[in-house]
Specification:
globular; alpha+beta; five-stranded antiparallel sheet
Amino acid sequence: MTRTITRLFDDYSDAKTAVTELERIGVPHDDLSIVANDAHGRHSADRGDNDGINEDGDVTRGASAGAAIGGVGGLLAGLGLLAIPGLGPIVAAGWLASTAVGAAIGGAGGAATGGIVGALKNAGHTDEEAGVYAEGVRRGGTLVSARVEDNLVGETEAVLDGNRGVSAGARGSDYRQSGWTGFDPDAAPYSTGEIDSHRAAYRREPTVM
């Protein structure tokens, strides 16, 4: 039986390390996904160019984003850049990115954002979990998702949690305490200043097991 294990990372470098370790334990590229907020434009070193965003910031797909779906040379080698209303600019690769790109090309921006939430729900996450994870990306975080067989669940969770991955339950509780009621695909993306403040609040957060 296949299960989807997802964690939110406040530090992009932790997420990258987790992806590399998951590849090392044998999770296929096709079953891995990474979606990272790139409002600061700091992740360009992990990808080739800026194909994927037009001058108005709308969602488009360029050569990089197309290559991202294949994951040739490792998942991180195929990162593509997208601009998704509600989330802002992101870099992404893998099955979750593929769903987002498909929704973006086929419909309105809200549909593209819903594509990420919908993909997580279709993979077994609850509405609440999917909403928290989408909100986490909007606030500057990075998602790593792995579809694995039962025999790899424990090892996958150990890799994600061991690299400071945070569960939807833990982060959702924090969000609700500050007045958050749910993910709004029509909300404006966070500014870089808001993202910096949010990240600072969790910089010393302990690993959630």
